Amino acid sequence: MNTLAIPLGLAGLAQVWSVATSALGLPVELRQAFWLIAAIAWIWTLAVHLHRGTRSDQPLSHQLMHFAQGPLAAILPIAAMLLGAGLHRTIPIAGTVLTLISIAAAVAFAAWILSFWMRGEMPLESVHGGYFLPISAAGLVGALTAAETGLDWLAVGSFAVGIFFWLVISVFFLLRLALRPAMPAPLVPTLAIMVAPPAVASAAWLTISGGQPNHLFEGLTAMTAFMVLIQLMLLPRYGTLPFSLGFWSFTFPAASVAALAITWLHLLQPFAWQAITVGVLAAVTILVVSIATKSILWLIATSRAGRRQRSAAEKQTIG
Questions:
Q1: Could you tell me which residues come within 8 angstroms of residue 19 by beta carbon, excluding any fewer than 6 positions away?
Q2: CB proximity list for 276: less than 8 A, separation 6 or greater
Q3: Is 152 exposed, middle or buried (0-12, 13-18, 19+ CB in 10 A)?
Q4: In terms of CB atoms within 10 Å, which of 78, 152, 205, 301 comes out highest?
Q5: Which residues of the chain, if any, have pLDDT below 50?
Q6: Residue 298: Cβ within 10 Å count
Q7: pLDDT of residue 122
């Protein structure tokens, strides 16, 4: 299910372009183009997973109960929330409806998976960065998108849920990292997700408070900056990883930080803030495009290798 991070990363990039469009006065067609790309990726990813699900021997409930992969299913409603908020800028009613449906789906999945975790069968070794997604990230993204669509009452409630479970999951996640063996390579990119909750929470609270920065906003930004520092310390570890589709786990956290940085630049307007904003926008766009390009090349190479293996196996069978 790590491919579900593709539409989330693209939606995060579209969110960055939306923030930059407001800050720099760019044409709205630019942000709309990125939202369209993210929507197409979301529909494509959902269709692919539904097709594969019909061919799987395991029922959907068993797949969702997989300790490593199950929490990642929350990405679908989270990305849909962002798409709803993006659509709200163009078609308010449709965007509001999509946001509400997505939040409702996220709430249902969060309640279900939390009840599953409470059975006491989950080994601590299974916890990874994706465990922030079902409740913490969903709550905070829900707060941001609800506030952007004018649903302030829902935004405050979602914010409270997201913050509470961000703290709870952080405890378990840090215990797993400190007291259990190192994560397997495919799950290491999920460490980047630690950055997303405080970055999204900062943006959500600023929107809830009507765009007026306050101490809570400043505190959440400081927490984001500290999490970014941790990620800088992890760069040597990331550099040893072979490329995989798991690298899409880097995209949404990076986009969340970039959007927050652009927001701060717009608020403070320091010297050359517009040029710096363009630089931040270009950097996160290049990151996502690079990962997308490498993903396409990786898929082509994997497909060719699979065909060669099948061809060799057929020749051995004939021989």
A1: 259, 262, 263, 266
A2: 265, 270
A3: middle
A4: 78
A5: none
A6: 16
A7: 85
Long-range pairs, 261-267, Cβ under 8 A, ≥24? 262/16, 262/19, 262/20, 262/23, 263/19, 263/23, 263/202, 263/203, 263/206, 264/221, 265/23, 266/19, 266/22, 266/23, 267/213
Question: pLDDT at position 49, please?
Answer: 81
Q: CB under 8 Å to 13, separation ≥6 — which residues?
A: 34, 38, 251, 255, 284, 285, 288
Q: What is the model's pLDDT at position 186?
A: 85
Tokens coding 201 = 């929470």
pLDDT in tens, 270-300: 999 999 999 999 999 999 999 999 999 988 8
Angle at 207 between CA 163 and CA 139, to 5 degrees: 30
Q: Shortest CA distance to 253 belongs to which of 155, 91, 136?
A: 136
pLDDT tens digits along 93-123: 999 999 999 999 999 999 999 999 998 888 8
As a whole number of angstroms, the distance between CA 19 and CA 212 comes to 16
> Three-state SS across the chain?
CHHHHHHHHHHHHHHHHHHHHHHHCCCHHHHHHHHHHHHHHHHHHHHHHHHHHHHCCCCHHHHHCCCCCHHHHHHHHHHHHHHHHHHHCCCHHHHHHHHHHHHHHHHHHHHHHHHHHCCCCCCHHHCCHHHHHHHHHHHHHHHHHHHHCCCHHHHHHHHHHHHHHHHHHHHHHHHHHHHCCCCCHHHHHHHHHHHHHHHHHHHHHHHHCCCCCCHHHHHHHHHHHHHHHHHHHHHHHHHCCCCCHHHHHHHHHHHHHHHHHHHHHHHHCCCCHHHHHHHHHHHHHHHHHHHHHHHHHHHHHHHHHHHHHHHHHHHHHHC
Q: Token pair 């063996």 is at which residue?
A: 181
Residue 34 has a CB neighbour count (10 Å cut-off) of 22
Task: Output the six-digit token pair for 89.
Answer: 């800028």
> Position 199: which residue type?
A
**Which of 127, 122, 120 lies closest to 178, judged by CA?**
127
